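--- STAGE predict ---
source: upstream dedup step, 1 unique chain passed
mode: sequence only
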Amino acid sequence: MFRLKNNAPFYSIGGILFLMGLFYLIPSDIFAISSTPKLIEKKMDLAQQIYAKHNQTISTQPKEIQLKWQQAAEGIIQAQKHAKFKRWKKTDLVLTQVLQTFMSIRSNIVKNQSKAICNGELASLKQTAKSLSDILEHSTSSTSDFEQIRTTLATLLAVPSDKVAQHKNYCLSLKNAINSSIAAIDQTHKNKTVYVSLDLSTPQKRYQYDKNRYVTYKLLLQQRLESLTLSDAITKKIMSHIQQANSSFQQAEKNFNGSEFKSAESLQVIANKNLVLALRLSGLYISE
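--- STAGE serialize ---
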């Protein structure tokens, strides 16, 4: 008898990767309608895996996605009833609809989370990009690749914040440009001694400095989680630190905007410490 399974919840970076991993395992030919019990059982197992792995985290999603998820869950139960009486064609039809619903949910979540990440990080990303752009403008390198990176970054920075929504994948493009800029600057200064002067004389300036570090840590974490396969236990701990960091950062932003600069600075330090701990759990040692 087919039964819904309840395994441990699936965790991924609070941003762009949620629900993506397992959905990529769905082969395109599995959507073909078949009355073969073996293929139907394969579909049932796949649907149950997706449900069990993601069910406990779906509650963080918008209501319309939760509703679709509930419909898919009810579809699994309906398919189980058909399978019990060996109504294979009806079982297969329902399961195919369930898997298509899961794919639709994945698409909506990725779209929503990309938008949320953009809105939440836009100011910090632009600030980081502006700092890198200033460095690139004063660099003596004139290679074609370097010029292309410089032009790309300048073009993205020229887009007004209120027009960003009109540009598809703006934040992803900005992040890629930032990464390319860092790599180019690193290559330019290879085997050279670079002296950096920081003005940390006020809480406001210290807060901005720590905020830039926060953005860098977030980018590093995203890259780590995209490239590594970590255990559920480690991923759960990492996500806990990320959630704590996000909470501290959001409160720090509110305090800073309310001219509570000292408390904003303290909260930003706490946010950074949590991201450092998350990076260490991923296997990358970062000193505080």
